[in-house]
Specification:
With 337 residues, the protein is mostly beta strands. The chain is built from 2 helices and 28 strands. It is elongated.
Length: 337
């Protein structure tokens, strides 16, 4: 008996396809009703639910290994390893949509049809970490065995909403009504500053999921921080420009440092912390040369603030600055001002 040939139909069901070969099965084509699932290493398996006849020597679970990717229209694709290609071909492309994104996972909704003809939807959960690629695009690194990763790239441009969250939208045609539908993915996290030419969006401090965006410039002012950057898109010669503007309030805290406090959704406030070298100017302002990290590395940014920064803990710092003409702020280090 020759090897059985399989294919995936438009309803994400596994189908036996004789393709002119004698398979020993009573029918030329047969739908195997079941569902796809992933294991802890994000390998794919198809669990067959419908009972099989005794003469059908088909396992109840078919395991598949390969490399994950996203198609241009955001479908999930598995390019199979060599041993599976004789029976499945080169690729399996699942119809569906990205349902949700979390700090360490991507959820993909798969719609199928049961044996009784009813539509049913289930979710594939891929685990991994989120990163920004060299073109400032959002990408999900799917965790595999032996520390390896497959990369799913969201090829479109992202936006920033009023709550300082990253929002990604894409369109695709619905199979039933043949109309295009917009899908929106919201990444919940908080912003951090690396240096004058790099700004980061952290999804979770407990994971490695962080978007490090390369920028052309960074501008720091009294009530906002602004970065200009580009997102490289396919079929476009020039990057799509983006302005990341973070609105907040500067403050001085003795046991913390110079902070920029940003209000996110649900009155959740998070601060970006800096060290600084400071000196008085001749126009009732304080000039800060910003530093970052436990080693107080100069990030190449100057910030000029009015004396209103002296409210609270800043009052003691301003007195110190007046007596010394210059002073240093240390963030995350043993020494404080």
């Amino acid at each position: 008996m020759k090897k059985i040939q399989y294919e995936i139909d438009p309803h994400n069901r596994l189908v036996i396809d004789g393709s002119g070969r004698k398979s020993g099965l009573p029918k030329f084509r047969k739908v195997l009703y079941g569902r796809f699932k992933t294991d802890e290493n994000n390998n794919l398996a198809y669990h067959i639910k419908a009972p099989l006849q005794e003469e059908e020597s088909i396992p109840h679970q078919i395991n598949l290994k390969g490399e994950w990717s996203l198609t241009d229209d955001h479908r999930l694709r598995l390019t199979l390893e060599k041993q599976a290609r004789e029976t499945f071909g080169d690729q399996i492309t699942l119809q569906g949509e990205i349902l949700e994104v979390n700090e360490s996972s991507l959820l993909f909704a798969v719609t199928t049809t049961t044996k009784e003809g009813a539509r049913s939807t289930y979710v594939l959960d891929l685990g991994g970490v989120w990163k920004a690629d060299e073109f400032n695009r959002l990408s999900f690194h799917v965790k595999k065995e032996k520390g390896k990763y497959d990369i799913l790239t969201l090829t479109g441009a992202w936006e920033i909403d009023k709550a300082h969250r990253i929002v990604y939208q894409y369109e695709k045609a619905r199979l039933v009504k043949k109309k295009r539908q917009t899908h929106t993915l919201v990444f919940k996290g908080y912003w951090d500053i690396k240096d004058a030419l790099r700004v980061s969006y952290v999804l979770s401090a407990d994971t490695d999921s962080v978007f490090d965006f390369k920028a052309a410039s960074g501008v720091f002012k009294e009530g906002w921080i602004k970065y200009e950057l580009g997102i490289g898109l396919a079929r476009r010669t020039a990057p799509e420009r983006r302005t990341v503007t973070l609105f907040g309030k500067w403050n001085l805290k003795k046991d913390v440092g110079l902070v920029f406090e940003i209000d996110y959704e649900y009155k959740n406030t998070k601060a970006i912390t800096f060290g600084a070298d400071a000196k008085l100017t001749g126009k009732d302002t304080v000039l800060f040369r910003l530093k970052k990290g436990i080693d107080n590395k100069d990030i190449g940014v100057d910030l000029e603030l009015s004396h209103e920064i002296s409210k609270g803990d800043g009052e003691a710092f301003l007195r110190l600055l007046t007596s010394r003409r210059e002073a240093a702020i240390y963030a995350g280090a043993v020494r404080r001002w």
